[in-house]
Specification:
It contains six helices and seven strands; from the N terminus they run ββαβααβααββαβ. With about 150 residues, it is of the alpha+beta class.
């Protein structure tokens, strides 16, 4: 089984007239199995490649249950991979994760002592419908670690 993906295109064109870049990619499952590295935390800000990254990490996510901090990019970034924002979030839910939106300082000037927002609230739905939003995916069995940071109102 090939672990390197050759010729992966980043974007049709880069900002300010930049060009495409071909990069080699190593899956997180390969890093876990082949290199015997087991992260407790995964941070992803990968410009629309969230879906392919998660597909390449399913065994790791099922076995080691790391927390995932990620920025979910716009539909335009996900569409080339045949994915939607909702589908990415649902994949994590199917793997036994609770996905919480991270309410940063975009609209406020003061810190929030409960910056995590559960699904089912109007605020959460706004993050899911947005362009680029930050989320934390907690394994269900570890959710109590952040319970004090979860907003109790929408």
């Amino acid at each position: 089984q090939a672990v390197w993906v050759k010729g992966f295109k980043l974007l049709p064109s880069g900002p300010n007239g930049g060009s495409n870049a071909n990069v080699d990619i190593l899956s997180l499952d390969y890093i876990h199995d082949g290199l015997e590295i087991s992260p407790d935390l995964i941070k992803m800000d990968i410009e629309g490649f969230e879906a392919p990254a998660l597909r390449g990490a399913e065994a790791l996510l099922r076995k080691k249950r790391p927390v995932i901090l990620f920025e979910l990019h716009s539909a335009a970034h996900l569409e080339p991979h045949g994915e939607t924002r909702v589908a990415v979030l649902e994949r994590l839910k199917a793997l036994g994760y609770t996905v919480l939106a991270v309410d940063g300082l975009r609209d406020r000037k003061e810190l929030n002592d409960q910056p995590l927002i559960r699904a089912g609230s109007a605020s959460y739905d706004g993050f899911v419908a947005g362009e680029n939003s930050a989320f934390v995916a907690m394994p269900n069995e570890k959710l109590d670690l952040v319970s004090g940071l979860i907003a109790t109102t929408s």
